[in-house]
Amino acid sequence: MSEKTDVIAASMIGTIIEWYGIFIFSSGAIYIAHTFYPHVTVAEGVLLTLLTFALGFVTRPVGAYVFGHFGDRLGRKKILLLTLLISGISTGLTGLIPSEASIGVFAIVLLVILRLVLGFGLGGEWGGAMLLTLETFKKRRGFYSSFVQSTVGIGLLLGTAIFLPLVAYTPHSFMYSIGWRIPFVASFVIVVIGVFIRLKVKETPVFEAEKKKNRILKSPEKELFTRHWKKIIAGTLLAGSSGNFFYFAISLLPVLFESLNKISVFDGLIGTALFGIIDVIFVFVGGQLSDKRGRRAIIAGANILALIVLFPSIYLVGFGYFVVFLSLFAIAHGLSYSPLGAMISEIFPTNVRYSGNSASYQYGNSFIGGPAPYASDLLGSVSYVLYPVFTLIFILIALGVIYKSKESEKMSLEDSASGYIEY
Fold it and tell me: pTM for the whole thing?
């Protein structure tokens, strides 16, 4: 492979594991609930499983802080090797945990621990992967950010490629006992490939130039939180909105429609696979458009589309509607995702960029996006009309942030502007 191809592949492999793991956990929620929460109703078990899923986001901000610190001090490449190993191994081990029937509550404890470890590793993965491309290629950053951001769809498709045949061609008893574990264990293979790829790439030219200028800070997080806190808030809210309507679509809607007996588990997998395909396509569309039209316009348009789709998606039920709404959410998410990745990286100076983009992205997904399935399900249990309210609130907030923001597309990565949000 060429050096450019190596960099792109190295940036993508870790986030593929991330989204692959998210997909197989949410898609296997019914089976995981049966394995670890067998003494409650199906609905309660799914709710507990979604809560366990959300716990993985608790340690993401910690990972963002720790790996962001060392990524800004030691370099992007070294940290990305470590985050890959932590994320991939913890995902694989999830498939090897004995059932609650075998070892009792200790099974749930192990599941929670691995979710927390996974979240810690993923806290540093996305930020470094994004910088590996943006700081290597520098120009057409919306386009090159698309390769990292396309791993959402690729991870969904990879998970579907393993999960769908298992659901379609194996007995239900097999899926409830062993079948759901296979996709998790398969992640070990991706880790081995990923380590091989990441060992081949060099440190980014932008970070190396920063070292030569003696601009590396002893405490990048101190600089970040004292001088760039407005950027963190803005990035958190933008990432949170995108993550919120993403998880609403791929995690909540399939489970909701399945619990209402409007679609089968197989139908849910088909719809999610379609989401993945459309998301990959529109990630590249959004990235290239943002290089021409700017980040703000594309992110705003995507949030407005998600806003329009939100309430109809829970009232027009059935497989056909399910596919249509997932497709529209995929377009919205795909369009916004590359401009978002570029924007929340461009706004920070090089010596705090790993800490800054990691904090923005992981805070947004940990505190706003990740809890969306659980929060929405909880609100929906009070009243059906409340299912979309949690997502609605943060879409409106994100539109306000975009309105107040400056455009970042023309910013130089070597000299990021300091005044991002105007009040």
Answer: 0.87
